[in-house]
Design goal:
Radius of gyration: 26 Å
Shape: rod-shaped
Number of helices: 2
Number of strands: 3
Strand order of the largest sheet: 1-2-3
Distance between the termini: 59 Å
Structural class: alpha+beta
Number of domains: 1
């Protein structure tokens, strides 16, 4: 290097990191795109477990709600309140999309 002033550059590490970044971006798109078949498959496989656990927690908390997630992550909430005096069962159904909920 003292004679010529030219330094040899190795691109192996840069190429590996670039390849890893491109692979992670591809996986990110597969998992976050609404039209992704992989995302839909993962949700379909786990939706019954999610609904089961949600019902369990609502029961433990003593809440009079029935909450169900659909495969598109839409939500149906049914509130069931029982009037003891008149034995009147009141059902109200509210449907909305999970993306519309903001928890702050």
């Amino acid at each position: 290097m003292r004679k010529t002033g030219i330094q040899e550059i190795e691109f192996d590490v840069i190429n590996e990191v670039t390849h890893l970044k491109e692979h992670q971006e591809f996986l990110y798109k597969l998992l976050t795109s609404k039209d992704s078949f992989i995302r839909k498959r993962i949700i379909d496989q786990n939706i019954s477990y999610l609904n089961h656990r949600l019902a369990h927690y609502l029961d433990k908390l003593g809440l009079p709600h029935d909450v169900k997630f659909a495969s598109d992550l839409g939500v149906e909430i049914t509130e069931m309140a029982l009037k003891t005096a008149g034995l009147f069962l009141f059902n109200s159904i509210i449907s909305f999309h999970a993306a519309d909920i903001r928890l702050e």
